[in-house]
Amino acid sequence: MNLLEVGGLKVWERASGHVIVRDVSFSLKQGECLAIVGESGSGKSLTCRTIMRLQSSRLAHSGRLLFKGMDLNALSARQFRKLRGRHICMIMQNGMRAFDPSRAIGVHLRETIMQHYDWSHSEFIDNITSAMASVMLKEPLDMMRKYPYQLSGGTLQRVMIALAIALKPDLIIADEPTTALDTITQYEVIEQFMKLRERIGCSMIFVSHDLGVVRKIGDHVLVMKDGEVVEQGSVSSVYDAPRHAYTKYLLTSRAMLRNHFRQVMGVL
Ligand SMILES: Nc1ncnc2c1ncn2[C@@H]1O[C@H](COP(=O)(O)OP(=O)(O)O)[C@@H](O)[C@H]1O
Ligand SMILES: [Mg+2]
Asked: What is the pLDDT of residues 139-161, one digit of tens each?
């Protein structure tokens, strides 16, 4: 059975009727990683937010959204809140915005976890410190006393990954989780994302405009343009034999950029 099935998803602006995302369909199996690529404004984030029911109330949607065979559209707000975090976790682009600036990291982690698990304080500390250690966060107890502004973007994204490890969701939706980071930190965080799947066996939707990252992390890829899916398939088939002109364009621009970089660096 598919973990997630999205069929004919359409998102539009209620007031104007303007359609932003149309006919997006894909399915995701247990343990699989689906990468979504496409230029800025192509509807990647909106697709993810609609699945999580986090889109603006100014927008409406239609289409099939099945999670473990359950119709997500039929869930009440309360039922959806229970699902979010515990079964489907979203990791956003900017770690800083995911945290409440006025509260220590540990308070945020504890509250989020306690919404879903009935752990004692020592169980919480044991689970979260081992999750933090597994993503190479040093001195977890010390870190939990810190406020978001005292930590770097890369550290905050790792805290988010640690939280996901502790929550053990079935599906993680990561929306450009490394875009705000410098190149070296990006690389380290991507490594943690790859290990995350091995650790908790979750499925993942990984949104990225970095085709190199997608090749590394994705099993399947969905290429979006102007609110539509223009191509999808296994990462190797799409990369080796792209069918749509836009995918070809994305791949050649990447190859040209890489060659240019090599020339500039004197590698060629
Ligand atoms: N709440 C909203 N109301 C109206 N339009 C929106 C809203 N959110 C996003 N959009 C529009 O939807 C399009 C897709 O946005 P988005 O999904 O964020 O793109 P991507 O993540 O691919 O860069 C953009 O043109 C954006 O302006
Ligand atoms: Mg986006």
From this structure: 999 999 999 999 988 899 889 88
Tens-digit pLDDT profile for residues 9-40: 999 999 999 999 999 999 999 999 999 999 89
Single-letter amino acid, residue 153: G
**Ligand 1 within 6 A of 56 CB?**
yes
Query: Is the CB of 23 within 6 Å of ligand 1?
Result: no
Full domain range(s) for residue 168: 2-265
How many domains, the chain? 1
Protein residue closest via CA to atom 27 of ligand 1: 41
For the Cβ of 225 lying below 6 angstroms from any atom of ligand 1, the answer is no
Question: Which residue has a Cα nearest atom 1 of ligand 1?
Answer: 56
Return the ligand number nearest the Cα of 37. 1
